[in-house]
């Protein structure tokens, strides 16, 4: 049986097509596989990092210093006169109001001098009144009336002097506060200028600290501040004083924060952490783990540029909280490296993945 030539021609065409696909698969497929392997090898050669996008936002700046509580005023109350201490009405360590007697001296002969001065004053008053009446009737000259008035004024001055001498026997509190220490006991003799005791004012209470040179220019009088004691108690107040002259030894500036202490429960001399508001400005919140040191020892963060290259920016930590740290020194939205930041260098190209 003879095969038609048309069938032989069709079979030949089919055989050629099959050979073409077989040869293309052998040679062309190998090239594609090699190219894919090359691309995969290049991708695997780039280090992989995880990033988090940190947007720029306004955040309050705070200057944090170590401080201590201090009384607003401390005065050693001294005697103005000489005498023996007769009584000490104020209890040591107790609250006393302004004007309360801290120590009372024996009056001795001062009361007698006051009584004599008052009697002399009454006599001069009668003489002056009689002179006025006689002058009206023409029996006393104007000069005599003026002399009697001068004698009356002198007697009144002597009474006032004697009253002051008696009052000086009472050594009083110059302001409301705590009678912190008694220096004189009953029976002790005090000369003028010798102490009765020490008064301290605890309301308002001061929280004082030393500012470094780099922070002193950021603050102003009246700025709000918060002091946290070791017990956890928080005291709110405002800056009342900033030194203009640095301590010659420490090169620091004294800062005083006045806080309310109505119950006087907070004592003087307690350690505190003082946070003083210094305004607000641009800042970024980043994870604590993203902070690294560069070759120069500067603290900062590594981030990824739009070209997927690594860059480093030194930052200043403003505040730390449970969500991370607020830092200053970055500009605009930043892709901060959170995983792998310690294994890449500035300028290196990386593969970027979002933080898990």
Automatic annotation (TrEMBL):
Transmembrane segments: 7-27
Domain CusB-like beta-barrel: 209-278
Keywords: Membrane, Transmembrane, Transmembrane helix
Family annotation (InterPro entries): Beta-barrel_RND_2, RND_pump_MFP
Pfam families named in the record: Beta-barrel_RND_2
Family according to the record: Belongs to the membrane fusion protein (MFP) (TC 8.A.1) family.
Matches recorded under PANTHER family: BLR2860 PROTEIN (PTHR30469:SF29), MULTIDRUG RESISTANCE PROTEIN MDTA (PTHR30469)
NCBIfam families noted in UniProt: RND_mfp (TIGR01730)
Protein name: Efflux RND transporter periplasmic adaptor subunit
Biological classification of the source: Bacteria, Pseudomonadati, Pseudomonadota, Alphaproteobacteria, Caulobacterales
């Amino acid at each position: 049986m003879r095969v038609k030539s048309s069938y032989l021609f069709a079979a030949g065409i089919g055989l050629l097509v099959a050979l073409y696909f077989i040869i293309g698969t052998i040679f062309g497929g190998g090239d594609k596989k090699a190219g894919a392997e090359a691309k995969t090898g290049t991708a695997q050669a780039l280090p992989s990092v995880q990033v988090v996008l940190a947007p720029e936002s306004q955040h309050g700046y705070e200057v944090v210093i170590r401080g201590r509580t201090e009384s607003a005023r401390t005065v050693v109350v001294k005697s103005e006169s000489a005498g023996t201490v007769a009584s000490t009405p104020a209890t040591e360590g107790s609250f006393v109001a302004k004007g309360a007697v801290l120590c009372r001296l024996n009056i001795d002969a001062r009361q007698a001098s006051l009584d004599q001065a008052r009697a002399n004053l009454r006599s001069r008053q009668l003489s002056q009144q009689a002179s006025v009446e006689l002058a009206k009737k023409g029996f006393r000259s104007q000069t005599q009336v003026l002399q009697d008035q001068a004698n009356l004024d002198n007697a009144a001055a002597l009474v006032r002097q004697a009253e002051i001498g008696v009052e000086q026997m009472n050594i009083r509190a110059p302001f409301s506060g705590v009678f912190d220490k008694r220096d004189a006991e009953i029976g002790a003799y005090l000369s003028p200028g010798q102490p009765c005791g020490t008064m301290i004012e605890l309301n308002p209470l001061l929280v004082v600290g030393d500012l470094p040179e780099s922070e002193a220019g950021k603050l102003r009088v009246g700025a709000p501040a918060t002091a946290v004691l070791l017990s956890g108690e928080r005291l709110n107040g405002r800056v009342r004083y900033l030194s203009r002259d640095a301590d010659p030894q420490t090169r620091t500036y004294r800062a005083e924060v006045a806080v309310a202490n109505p119950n006087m429960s907070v004592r003087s001399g307690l350690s505190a952490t003082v946070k003083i508001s210094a305004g607000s400005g641009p800042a970024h919140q980043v994870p604590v783990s993203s902070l690294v040191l560069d070759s120069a020892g500067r603290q900062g963060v590594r981030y990824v540029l739009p070209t997927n290259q690594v860059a480093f920016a030194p930052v200043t930590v403003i505040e730390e909280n449970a969500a991370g740290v607020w830092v200053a020194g970055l500009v605009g939205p930043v892709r901060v490296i959170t995983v792998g930041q310690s294994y890449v260098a500035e300028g290196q190209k990386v593969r970027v993945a979002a933080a898990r």
